[in-house]
Amino acid sequence: MCTLEKRGRIFILTITGSDEHRLNPTLIDAIQSALHRVRAESASSSALITTAQGKFFSNGYDLAWAGASKARRELMNSKLQSLVTNLISLPIPTIAAISGHASAAGFILALGHDYILMRSDRGFLYMSELDIKLVIPPWFIALVECKIGSPKARRAVVLTAAKITAKQAVELGIIDSAHDSADETVDSAVRLGEELAKREWDGHVYGQNRMRLFAKALDEIALDTTESTQTQTQTRSRM
């Protein structure tokens, strides 16, 4: 479901296959496993790139897998929270090289990275919840607020469910750069990663500073986790 390649100083995590890369527990666990390896093998002169094969970076949660099951929806949410927390605490720079559509939870996965590069010939960023009649989780909103500085851009993402192209995303300050193809996007990400890795920042300090920058999102994740645990405990106590 994903591969991890070491190219010099750079780790390249690729979500494989030509499907929509829907985020279900199996895929999230595979990405987590790769991140655990990165954490174990990385040095201060490393960087991580996350990309995907096919038309989609990720089309969000696997709603078909979840169906009407509240427990399955909560499991997906909990696992993505853990994954994003892992990304935020990783002791090296991270880059999302978006090769296609990144929607809803897939958009959130991209926002969990320090830098976002995107191909301009295909794909869009899309917070689809408004169109599919779902309320966006508070921790999604907190991450959007941490990563997207412009109120105009946040309004476009959250309150119009705009399908934002790479060119528009650059103009709105959502991504760092746009590129002509998937290959050029990854190549540019590698060049950026090499430049960042050369700085040889202290990994612990880098991770801690990022965690402070993303504190609002981490606080919302912690609050959501606590509330979910309390609900489960109350449910079990009634049985």
Q: In percent terms, what proportion of residues is strand?
A: 15-25%
Q: Supply Rg.
A: 17 Å
Distance between the termini: 38 Å
Tally of DSSP helical segments = 10
Q: Mean pLDDT, rounded to whole units? A: 94
Q: How do the strands of the widest beta sheet line up side by side?
A: 1-2-3-5-7-9
Tell me the total number of β-strands: 9
Derived structural class: alpha/beta
**Biggest sheet architecture:** 6 strands, mixed
Q: Would you identify the regions where 5 or more consecutive residues have pLDDT less than 50?
A: none
Helix and strand sequence: EEHEEHHEEHEEHHHEHHH
Helix content: 40-55%
Q: What general form does the structure show?
A: globular
Task: Walk me through what this model shows.
- The chain has 239 residues and is an alpha/beta fold.
- It is 52% helix and 16% strand.
- The protein is built from ten helices and nine strands.
- The strands form two sheets. A six-stranded mixed sheet has the order 1-2-3-5-7-9, with helices on both faces. Strands 4-6-8 form a three-stranded parallel sheet.
- Helix 1 packs parallel to helix 3, helix 3 runs antiparallel to helix 10 and helix 5 runs antiparallel to helix 10.
- The chain is globular, with a radius of gyration of 17 Å.
- It starts with a strand and ends with a helix.
- The relative contact order is 0.15.
- The model has no long low-confidence stretch (mean pLDDT 94).
